[in-house]
Amino acid sequence: MDNQNSEIVKLVQFPAMFGLPNASPYCMKVETFMRIAGIPYEIIEEVNPSKGPKGKLPYIIHKGKEIADSTFILEYLSAEFNVDLDSHLSIQEKAVAHSFQRLFEESLIWVMAYNRMTDNWHVIESAWFGFLPPVLKMFLPSMLKQQFKSKLMAQGIGRHSRNEIYHYGMKDLRAIVDQLGAKPFLMGDRVSLVDTTAYAFVSSLLINEFTSPLDELSKTAENLRAYRDRMQNLYFPELNYSRRDDLASV
Ligand SMILES: N[C@@H](CCC(=O)N[C@@H](CS)C(=O)NCC(=O)O)C(=O)O
Question: How far, in Å, from the CA of 209 to the mean position of ligand 1?
């Protein structure tokens, strides 16, 4: 790997929250990749996703270019820094890894978004808007909530009942827990590209401050918590674990 790439990568993402490098799994995925690959980077905190080239976060700035979308960012960085986290995987394993990446990022994400916007709205409200002046607090949170509702409707998941949404979520989660099994990483003994996504999403699912019917499986599945801790120990050792000890009693 060539780490002598002259210009440092700037990662534009939300400020850290809930004891994680990022509460957005897409942002955390990119940072995890850079940790695994040993790519030096700087973080630029941004709270407004519309500043990004595609109206979402994260994006990176490198050599005068802005690159958006976590997957395209990882492809760019892999080529630029000559990294291949999947070199040990077979064609079939790559197919499975790709499917799981899409399951996290295109399916489970909507259940998580629904969960944050309904059951945990009070947590989001105080974390995101607690600092706003009262006048802005009056309309900004409800405007954002309305926007989220429209997105859930447009995607389709918002048309299901609460039980149906969590039913889908449970099926996704069961597949993840079963795929991980007793392996140290999602695809076996070695870390691979899909672990950047899996670790970010699993960490998000395990955020203490949020509650969800999915907790029944996510917060009790021993392998999932051990996986989160293993990845964290390896790639974000500076994070404070003590606040997570109470998960053991869930
Ligand atoms: N496919 C994108 C998804 C990024 C994404 O959805 N980011 C969310 C935060 S988790 C965002 O910026 N949402 C703002 C919006 O949709 O307005 C990626 O992989 O980077």
Answer: 21
End position of a domain, from candidates 80, 101, 124? 80
- b/e per residue 33-66 (b: at least 16 CB within 10 A): bbbbbebebebeebeebeebeeebbbbbbbeeee
Nearest atom of ligand 1 to the alpha carbon of 49: 12
Q: What is the pLDDT of residues 176-197, one digit of tens each?
A: 999 999 999 999 999 999 999 9
160 alpha carbon to ligand 1 midpoint, in Å? 22
Measured over all CA atoms, what is the biggest interatomic distance in the chain, rounded to whole angstroms?
56
Alpha carbon of 248 to ligand 1 centroid (Å): 31
Boundaries of domain holding 70: 9-80
pTM value?
0.93
Evaluate whether residue 178 is within a structural domain: yes
